[in-house]
């Protein structure tokens, strides 16, 4: 029904030689993955050399962020055209580190989502509650706002992915249990039904992210509404990332 998508978010890690070494390790280890999509999101500086190294491989390439304009006086930013130019087909948007360290809000993230789709990139919209919001019983309220505002202006014809990443589980070693994650994923799918109809909601991939490791991947990925993973720390080593991708 929904094809699994396992994505690696390398964050601000890997020089070019380190990136090439990691990609070579992945190419060696990833066998029999025709039934799922594998995506890596290196830092901007490594995208072009990695895209050359990926020629002939089925591993997909994505950016970790982008600005919504095509070009111009936006010092330090990267445009959708630039990501496409180096072979990206996906872009992660609204990651909690962008929201909480760099102050990105739903309005800005939505502009980026719209621009990504317009330029033929598949946005992976990240949403997730902070620990205090979960403890106050506000998880659904927070997720609903981020999903509705992040996807504003899209139609059922547009391709996008959602990543549910509880902020308290990112890089902390604390993972949501498969049941906790499933509950939020199914809530997200209900919102998608309201926004885009049942048929489209059934086709949108909703990934889980937050301390996914080879040891917990199977339990999470076997849940009915978890359609893949967005992996941070464990995507930095070929051994652990390929073990997650080939969890079954
Ligand atoms: C992430 O940054 O998207 C992430 C889920 O990180 P980690 O796997 O390290 O928790």
From TrEMBL:
Main subcellular location: cytoplasm
Swiss-Prot/TrEMBL GO biological process terms: gluconeogenesis; glyceraldehyde-3-phosphate biosynthetic process; glycerol catabolic process; glycolytic process
Q: Which HAMAP family match?
A: TIM_B
What metabolic or biological pathway is this protein involved in? Carbohydrate biosynthesis; gluconeogenesis; Carbohydrate degradation; glycolysis; D-glyceraldehyde 3-phosphate from glycerone phosphate: step 1/1
According to UniProt, the reaction catalysed is: D-glyceraldehyde 3-phosphate = dihydroxyacetone phosphate
- Provide the function of this protein: Involved in the gluconeogenesis. Catalyzes stereospecifically the conversion of dihydroxyacetone phosphate (DHAP) to D-glyceraldehyde-3-phosphate (G3P).
Q: Where in the cell is it found?
A: Cytoplasm
* One matching Pfam family: TIM
PROSITE patterns linked: TIM_1 (PS00171), TIM_2 (PS51440)
Q: Which UniProt keywords apply?
A: Cytoplasm, Gluconeogenesis, Glycolysis, Isomerase
Quaternary structure, from the entry: Homodimer.
Protein name as it appears in the record = Triosephosphate isomerase
Family per UniProt? Belongs to the triosephosphate isomerase family.
